[in-house]
Amino acid sequence: GAVVSQHPSWVICKSGTSVKIECRSLDFQATTMFWYRQFPKQSLMLMATSNEGSKATYEQGVEKDKFLINHASLTLSTLTVTSAHPEDSSFYICSASFSREILQYFGPGTRLTVL
Amino acid sequence: DAKTTQPPSMDCAEGRAANLPCNHSTISGNEYVYWYRQIHSQGPQYIIHGLKNNETNEMASLIITEDRKSSTLILPHATLRDTAVYYCIVRVEQTGANNLFFGTGTRLTVIP
Fold first, then answer.
1. Which of A2, A60, B76, B83 could make an SS bond with A105 (beta carbons 3.0 to 4.6 A apart)?
2. What is the average pLDDT value for chain B, to the nearest integer?
3. Residue A86 DSSP label
4. Torsion of CA A25, B96, A42, B10, to 10 degrees
5. Across the interface, do A43 and B97 touch by the CB < 8 Å criterion?
6. What confidence score (pLDDT) does residue B112 get?
7. Chain B residues with CB inside 8 Å of A49's CB?
8. Quick check: B102 and A43 CB within 8 A?
9. Is residue A75 within 8 Å of A30, Cβ to Cβ?
10. Nearest CA in chain B to A92
11. Are A11 and A19 in contact (CB under 8 A)?
């Protein structure tokens, strides 16, 4: 149980375009989802936290207008990288938790390459 | 949340026990110790967590010192698939999910 999927697993796009990444909890209802970013040879850095039906809470230094997060249902959250640039190339990972559960269950990640 | 210190890398022979240490000398009484691992180019995987008693599950054992200032994750029979970065995280357990702070972790390499 507690499986989280992400789609796509990798994506290559041109600079200036927008990319949407989906995060789904497959066998549980996720009241909270988290989005992390990981650059090569670095650790995971939290970007934002989203609760179903509420606006996401962004970490300091993360542009909310550039990284749009939607958590419209208990099983789906999306991250849209708007007007992507090469410096946005990274490994994006989501995780999900359900009510009263502390553990986070992570998706497999999405590798974004912006040319 | 308390800060943790881990060695940057370790090697372990296949089939032997891998003992990964973690120092958390500033841990508070209500903070749990969590271990996750991340295999290359994958999302992190939960391993185990504990408060003060030793814990064991199908993946690993967690040994926490009596003063709770350090802990050791034990993989009893390491395999090549255990090669990963292991993260020790200290966090208060409370209702409602909170973010996890991933430090630099320990890169474990299991050698054939």
1. A2
2. 91
3. G
4. -100
5. no
6. 95
7. 99
8. yes
9. yes
10. B43
11. yes
SS3 A7: strand
Inter-chain touch B44–A34, beta carbons under 8 Å: no
DSSP B16: S
- Which positions in chain A touch B9 (Cβ < 8 Å)? none
> With an 8 Å Cβ cutoff, is B40 touching chain A?
no
The tokens for B41 are: 């180019």
Sign of CA dihedral B38, B40, B43, B45: negative
Nearest residue of chain B to residue A111 (CA atoms): B41
CB contact under 8 A, B99 and A49: yes
Contact, A49 vs A27, CB < 8 A? Answer: no
What is the reported pLDDT for B93? 65
Mean pLDDT for chain A overall: 92
- In order of A68, A71, B32, the CA distances from B75 in angstroms are 40, 37, 19
- Residues of B with CB below 8 A from A107's CB? 43
Q: Which residues contact A63 (CB under 8 A, 6 or more apart)?
A: none
Classify residue A68 by burial, with Cβ atoms within 10 Å: 0-12, 13-18, 19+. middle
Q: Is B8 on the interface with A (CB under 8 A)?
A: no
Place of tokens 């990288």: A81
Q: Are B20 and B27 in contact (CB under 8 A)?
A: no
For every residue of A40-100, DSSP letters joined together read TTS--EEEEEEETTSPPEEPTT--TTTEEEEEEETTEEEEEE-S--GGG-EEEEEEEE-TT
Tell me the C-alpha to C-alpha distance, in Å, between residue B84 and each of B4, B10, B79.
Answer: 18, 10, 11
Between B2 and B101, the more confident residue is B101
Encoded tokens for B60: 């690993």
